[in-house]
């Protein structure tokens, strides 16, 4: 497969974007326009005119990272970079989604993700509606199908859904015409988290391909893990995962990871350390005997970090359990990019919303 | 009562060893005569005329079609009494007739549960009033299926129960299973167990493996079935009781059964069409369609292969559908929240015929053994054969008929199937129960 080097505006080489594969449905007029626009004003410098990098996303929904091609992920990350600039302006608003209605349908508690989506939507000038279980008919026993139909009747353009059941966004996608964005479904996927993680890694390391990424924690119940695994494998990173054997799901290696049960060898030479939240309720489930023992065996301490590369970055999707999966000294230490992740979340979500609404990277740049 | 001559079909009846072209004469609801086509009185080799049918006999031309003993589904949920929004004895038996089944054994997890005389009598009476096929009830093992003390099995057997089971749930403790296997020896009926160690399956919703991991759905490990199978086999060996294992789904379970049989344990077992045909990949491919959610769950390719092999080599005695109707309102919800189970009566024959017989994985004789003869024998019913003198329960299959599964056309009150849209070859076209036509798909031209 031919690869085209893509250079960012700063001149650093970011990513080798794969030549776009022939997509079902062929080239739409919008995509053709976008392609033309990108030739005029592309932020990337291209070598060889034969292959056109992707400038628009031929997808209706973002249900997960699984199913996204490398060039689609790269497009989202490149678009996020352009979006990040909006956040530095004094008036942090562009009219890209003016007149679009977005419903934030959050059926599970969330602070970071919901605020992040909401800020992203507002910066794009969309009209937003927040929908939470306590204030909705769901608390009156309305089924997801009826809720979906009722939302649909109000014709929103997009629905951002967070739900405790894996596959709930897929369910909505079957029954709604709106674009569906998965903001975390059960223990399945959390695609925008993986995208913001990738964005953060790329900003810090300049690339993703070939990096050694170590992910530690409750692997079984983590949707962040799954989305990251799919994404990192697609972009060519080497992924090590580590957790107590009781929290390593069956067949995880088939998703493209090397499994460790001891943290020390897992961290050896890592470029990126990603810690996952330990959910205290798992302890009652018998997965490990105590938070204290968990910290002793798997907690990220300064001594353990020393096994990674000296320039390794430390990530956590939040919310953190300080003293359980991560020592505060590390969480607040020099390699930590935990708050950058949060900041980047807004840009990445702006990029996802913008591209799903039919926006193109070229238009944005011009 | 109408009398019939089913003329010119291929009769496959393993009980009598017949497999060839025979005419079947049905008189007064019984098989009166089975005679070879071209034999005495038939179409002679020299082109002599077909024998004139006796007076009062309607001839049905079934040439080109397959005539088999009426099929017996030993594991269905008719939901009646108590859950009539899912299915009733009326709609469930119509679904059976449309699917080629002439006898159903219905599981006791109704509301109230069939754990005593009153409900057994209701089912028998209701089936007589409204049923279009034979219905034999299965009683509970324990009162209320609570797993605490034995139900009044003697009463239920007297009223017509042919087996006991706490299906829907496993027989909870080894002690109760022992009691059941010992107590039922008096009646010589099987104890049917849904093998599942609930401490292992817990809140799982699909097979535990790479697919559940990728989908983020909680897994049900294979061992939750096989440890329960091993327990039951040890108890059957100890008690000498008759054990029947419902809907086995894993390679390990079948290996346990083989080993126990070699030791002389009295055990029989069944598998469902969906476990023989689908794997857990169906959950991913259907993008979390709750109609791929059942218990036991769809397993991996290796298990499916083992089931087909077990069907071929005789380890698996019967195919049963585990017909489990659920209303759309219950089933069209988040995968985690959907009830387990799918309907099976109206898809079993074309699925097994198309995917297992036509593909050469099992013979037509084996098809009849596992769908008619063996389940009848396990339940002690004088069914599953076209021998002279037997009840005229007959299923006619058109091996050339191609149809697409359309849940909207189901006779069942429920439509929860993962097979909607499947194009299959080999459909039941005529179902006769006790000499009465219970279903006719209009594919049998009459003279």
Layout of helices and strands:
The complex is a heterodimer of chains A (366) and B (447).
Chain A (H helix, E strand, L loop, with lengths): L2 E5 L5 E6 L10 H13 L28 H17 L14 E6 L5 H12 L3 E5 L12 H10 L4 E6 L4 H8 L3 E7 L5 H15 L6 E5 L6 H13 L2 E5 L15 E3 L2 H5 L4 E4 L5 H4 L6 H8 L3 H4 L7 E3 L12 H4 L6 H19 L4 H5 L1
Parallel strand pairs in A: 3-4, 3-5, 5-6, 7-8, 7-10, 8-9, 10-11
Antiparallel strand pairs in A: 1-2
Helix pairs in contact in A: 2-6, 2-13, 3-13, 4-5, 6-7, 6-13
Chain B lengths: L2 E11 L4 E10 L2 E7 L20 E5 L4 E4 L1 E6 L12 H10 L2 E6 L10 H14 L3 E6 L13 H7 L3 E3 L8 H10 L7 E3 L4 H4 L4 E2 L2 H6 L3 E2 L2 H17 L3 E3 L5 H12 L4 E5 L1 H5 L3 H5 L15 H13 L4 E2 L8 H4 L16 H10 L6 H15 L15 E11 L18 E11 L2 E5 L7
Helix pairs in contact in B: 2-3, 4-7, 7-8
List keywords for this structure.
heterodimer; A: 366 residues; alpha/beta; 5-stranded parallel beta sheet; 4-stranded parallel beta sheet; 11 strands; 37% helix; globular; disordered N terminus; B: 447 residues; 8-stranded mixed beta sheet; 8-stranded parallel beta sheet; 14 helices; 18 strands; 30% helix
Write up what this structure looks like:
The complex is a heterodimer of chains A (366) and B (447). Chain A has 14 helices and eleven strands. With 366 residues, chain A is an alpha/beta fold. In chain A, the strands form three sheets. A five-stranded parallel sheet of chain A has the order 9-8-7-10-11. In chain A, strand 3 (101-106), helix 3 and strand 4 form a beta-alpha-beta unit. The longest helix of chain A has 19 residues, at 338-356. Chain A is globular, with a radius of gyration of 20 Å. In chain B, 30% of the residues lie in helices and 23% in strands. In chain B, helix 2 (117-130) packs parallel to helix 3. In chain B, the strands form three sheets. In chain B, strands 1, 2, 3, 4, 5, 16, 17 and 18 form an eight-stranded mixed sheet that branches. Chain B is globular. Chain B has 447 residues and is α/β, with parallel strands linked by helices. In chain B, strand 7 (101-106), helix 2 and strand 8 form a beta-alpha-beta unit. Chain B contains 14 helices and 18 strands. Chain B has helices at residues 89-98, 117-130, 153-159, 174-183, 198-201, 210-215, 223-239, 251-262, 273-277, 281-285, 301-313, 328-331, 348-357, 364-378; strands at 3-13, 18-27, 30-36, 57-61, 66-69, 71-76, 101-106, 134-139, 163-165, 191-193, 206-207, 219-220, 243-245, 267-271, 318-319, 394-404, 423-433, 436-440. The longest helix of chain B is centred in the middle third of the chain and has 17 residues, at 223-239. Classes of the chains: A alpha/beta (366), B alpha/beta (447).
């Amino acid at each position: 497969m031919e690869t085209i080097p893509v250079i960012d505006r700063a001149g650093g080489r970011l990513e080798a974007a794969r030549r776009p594969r022939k997509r079902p449905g062929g080239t739409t007029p919008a995509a053709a326009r976008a392609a033309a626009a990108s030739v005029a004003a592309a932020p990337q410098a291209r070598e060889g005119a034969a292959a056109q990098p992707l400038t628009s996303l031929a997808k209706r929904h973002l249900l997960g990272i699984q199913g996204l091609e490398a060039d689609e992920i790269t497009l989202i990350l490149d678009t996020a970079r352009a979006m990040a600039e909006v956040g530095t302006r004094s008036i942090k608003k562009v009219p890209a989604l003016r007149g679009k209605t977005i419903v934030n349908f959050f059926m599970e508690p969330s602070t970071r993700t919901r605020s992040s989506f909401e800020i992203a939507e507002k910066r794009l000038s969309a009209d937003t509606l927040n929908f939470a279980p306590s204030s909705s008919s769901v608390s009156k026993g309305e089924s997801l199908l009826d809720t979906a139909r009722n939302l649909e009747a109000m014709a929103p353009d997009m629905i951002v859904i967070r739900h405790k059941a894996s596959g709930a966004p897929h369910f909505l996608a079957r029954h709604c015409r709106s674009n569906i964005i998965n903001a975390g479904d059960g223990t399945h996927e959390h695609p925008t988290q993986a995208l913001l993680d990738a964005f953060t890694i790329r900003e810090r390391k300049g690339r993703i391909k070939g990096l050694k990424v170590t992910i530690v924690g409750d692997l079984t119940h983590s949707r962040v893990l799954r989305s990251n695994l799919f994404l990192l494998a697609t972009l060519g990173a080497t992924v090590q995962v580590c957790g107590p054997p009781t929290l390593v799901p069956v067949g995880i290696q088939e998703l493209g990871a090397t499994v460790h049960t001891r943290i020390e060898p897992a961290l050896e030479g890592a470029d990126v350390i990603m810690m996952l939240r330990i959910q205290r309720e798992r302890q009652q489930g018998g997965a490990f005997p105590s938070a204290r023992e968990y910290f002793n065996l798997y907690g990220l301490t300064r001594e353990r970090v020393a096994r990674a590369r000296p320039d390794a970055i430390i990530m956590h999707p939040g919310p953190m359990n300080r003293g359980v999966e991560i020592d505060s000294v590390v969480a607040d230490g020099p390699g930590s990019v935990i708050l950058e992740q949060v900041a980047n979340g807004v840009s990445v979500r702006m990029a996802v919303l913008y591209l799903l609404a039919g926006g193109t990277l070229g238009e944005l740049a011009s | 009562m109408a009398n019939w001559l089913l003329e010119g079909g291929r009769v496959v009846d393993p009980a009598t060893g017949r497999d060839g072209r025979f005419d079947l004469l049905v008189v007064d609801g019984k098989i009166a005569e089975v005679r070879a086509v071209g034999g005495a009185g038939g179409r002679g080799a020299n082109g002599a005329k077909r024998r004139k049918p006796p007076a009062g006999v309607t001839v049905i031309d079934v040439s080109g079609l397959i005539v088999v003993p009426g099929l017996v589904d030993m594991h269905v949920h008719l939901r009646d009494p108590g859950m009539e929004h899912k299915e009733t004895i009326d709609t469930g038996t119509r679904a059976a007739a449309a699917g080629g089944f002439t006898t159903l054994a219905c599981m006791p997890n109704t509301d109230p549960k069939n754990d005593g005389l009153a409900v057994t009598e209701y089912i028998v009476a209701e089936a007589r009033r409204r049923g279009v096929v034979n219905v034999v009830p299965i009683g509970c093992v324990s009162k209320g299926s609570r797993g605490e003390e034995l139900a009044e099995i003697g009463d239920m057997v007297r009223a017509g129960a042919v087996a006991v089971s706490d299906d829907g749930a496993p027989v909870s403790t080894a002690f109760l299973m022992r009691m059941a296997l010992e107590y039922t020896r008096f009646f010589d009926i099987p104890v049917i167990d849904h093998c599942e160690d609930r401490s292992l399956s817990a809140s799982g919703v699909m097979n535990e493996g790479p697919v559940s991991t990728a989908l983020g759905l909680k897994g049900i490990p294979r061992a939750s079935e096989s440890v329960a199978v091993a327990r039951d086999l040890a108890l059957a060996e100890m008690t000498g009781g008759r054990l029947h294992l419902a809907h086995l789904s894993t390679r390990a379970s079948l290996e346990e059964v083989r080993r126990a049989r070699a030791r002389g344990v009295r055990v029989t077992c069944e598998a469902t069409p969906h476990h023989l045909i689908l794997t857990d990949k169906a959950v991913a491919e259907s993008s979390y369609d709750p109609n791929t959610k059942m218990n036991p769950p769809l397993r991996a390719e290796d298990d499916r292969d083992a089931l087909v092999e077990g069907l071929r080599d005789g380890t698996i005695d019967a195919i049963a559908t585990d017909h489990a109707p659920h209303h759309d309102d219950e089933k069209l919800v988040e995968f985690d929240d959907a009830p387990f189970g799918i309907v099976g009566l109206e898809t079993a024959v074309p699925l097994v015929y198309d995917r297992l017989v036509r593909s050469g994985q099992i013979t037509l004789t084996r098809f009849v053994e596992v769908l008619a003869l063996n389940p009848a024998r396990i339940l002690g019913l004088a069914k599953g054969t076209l021998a002279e003198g037997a009840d005229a329960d007959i299923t006619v299959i058109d091996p050339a008929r191609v149809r697409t599964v359309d849940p909207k056309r189901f006779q069942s009150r429920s439509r929860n199937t993962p097979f909607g849209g499947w194009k299959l070859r080999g459909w039941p076209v005529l179902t006769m129960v006790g000499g009465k036509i219970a279903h006719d798909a209009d594919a049998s031209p009459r003279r």
